[in-house]
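Researcher: Structure for this, please.
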Amino acid sequence: QMADPFLYDSGERSHYGCLGHEVQIEHIKAYVCRPSFFTDKAVIVVHDIFGWLFPDIRYIVDLIAGHGYITICPDFFKGTDPWKTTDHWADFADWMKRHDPTKVDKEADVVLKYLKEQCGAKKIGIVGFSWGGMAVHHLMLKNPQLTAGVSLYGRIIRDSEERYNLLNPTFFIFGEKDHTISYDQITLLEEKLEQYCKVAYKIKVYPGQVHGFAQLKPEDMKPDDKPYIEEARKDMIDWIKMFI
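Model: Predicted structure, C-alpha cell format:
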C-alpha cells in the first residue's frame, strides 16, 4: 500500500486568471503564453498529476513567459482524466500505470515540432513538476532537441545506469521534507550522476519544503515557505537562462 504519494493540499487554491490561451496541436491540447516581444526561445512545462488545467501550473507557464520565453503546457494525459482530489489513493498505482511519465516521447515530439515550425523556436528547454519532473528526467535522457531541463521533485526511478547519462544540462530540485523522495535517494542520484553524467547538472534541496512546494501562487504560500519557494523558482529560471 502506497502512502499518499503527492501530499500537498491541492484543494484550497485561490482563483487564477490566465494570461495565455489554449491551442490544439495534432492530437493534444495545450496552454500557451507568449512574451510581449518576439523570441526564438521556448520552454515546455510538464504538469503534475492534476493535469494541464490546474491553476498552479498555468501560473508557472505565465511566470516563465514573463521572463521572455514562448511557454507551453501540453496535456500529456491526452484528454484522459487527471488525478482528482476526490480520488482514492488506493487506486493511485493503477492510475499511474495508465499515466506513465516515461511514455511522453510522442507528445514531446509533437510539441517540439509545433514550437519549431509554428513559433519559430530555435532553442527549447523543459521544466516539470512531480509527475512532470519524472517525465523531464526521462526526456533529458532521450531527446537531444531539449537544450536544458529542470526536474522538480520527480520521484527517482532506478532501473539502469543509463538513467544517469543525461544528454543536456539538467537541474534537480527537491524539498527537504518531501515524504515521497527520501534523502538517501537524492544522495544516490548525486553519486550516480557524478559517475555517469557527462554534461552539466545540479541538485538542490530546499529546507523545510514538502512535495509540490514550488508551484504555489503567492497567495497560497505560507510565510515561512515563501523565501524558499521564490528561491527555487529563481534558480529554475536562472538555469534555463544559462543555457537558453
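Researcher: Any notable elements?
Model: The beta strands are 21-25, 28-33, 41-46, 70-74, 123-129, 146-152, 170-175, 201-206. The helical segments are 55-65, 92-98, 105-117, 131-142, 183-196, 226-243.
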